[in-house]
Amino acid sequence: MNAPAYVPTDTPWHLISLRPQGQHDALRRAAARIGARTVALSPWRLRLRNDAATRAQLAQALACDRIVFTSPAAVDAAARLLPLAQIPPGHAVTVGEGTARELRRRGVAGVQAPSRMDSEGLLALPAMRHLQGKRVALVTAPGGRGMIAAQVQAMGAQLLRADVYDRVPLPVSAATVARLQALQGITVLALSSGEALEHLLTQLPEPLIERWRAAPVVSASARLAELARSLGFGQVHVAAGPMPAQLASAAYAVLHPQDPAP
Question: Is the pTM of this model over 0.90?
C-alpha cells in the first residue's frame, strides 16, 4: 500500500477539479476552507437541448412510474424545458442528495436519494425495487449511467431515456498544459466522473499524466477508485461521497493524516 502524501498545514497545495465549465465554484469554496487552491480543468461544457423533440421526450419521462434524475445539471436542464412540480410525490429518485435538493427546490415532493451516492446506492432504494412492468425514465445526458439502465431493464421495467442536455467536449489548450506542468508542490486530483478523466487523459502529454499517476486521487465512489487504479493511478482514496466538501475533506485527510480538517 502506498504511504499517504504529507505536506505541512501551512503549505499551499492544489486540488484539481474536473467539473464541467462554469461548475467549479462549490469545490473551489470547499478547497479554500482547508487551505487549498483549486485548478479548474473542464473536460466539457454543458449545453441545453431546447427543441420540440426533447420537450416531448421529457414529457413522456415525467409521466413514468419512476423518474431518475442523474445530476443537478439534469434537473436544471429539465426545469428549463418543463415545470417539474407536476411530478407525483414519490416518483422522483436521484443518484445523490445534491440532485434531490435541486428537485425539492423546484417543488418536487417525496424525492428519494441514497445515502451511498452512486448508481449502486440508487438501485438499492425502496422505490427502485419491484420494477417489473413499470415504466422508468432516466433524465440525463448522452453517455454514462449504463449500470442503472441495464439493471432497470433486467428487473423487467420499460426504460425511457430523456437526454435533456449535451456534454460538449473542450480541448485542453497549450496554455492550460503549461500551467499544469508549472504547478509546484503537492496536487490532489478530485475524481467525480470517470468519463471526464478518460477524456482528459487522451489530451495530456505523457510526462504530465505520469505526474498525475504518482499524485493522490480522491474519488467519489469505490467504482471510480477502481477505474483510476486501472488507469495506472497508484495512490487512490475513496471519499465519503461526491459532494465538494466530501472530496475536499478526503484530500485534506490524505495530506494531513494526523490533523482534523478545519
Answer: no
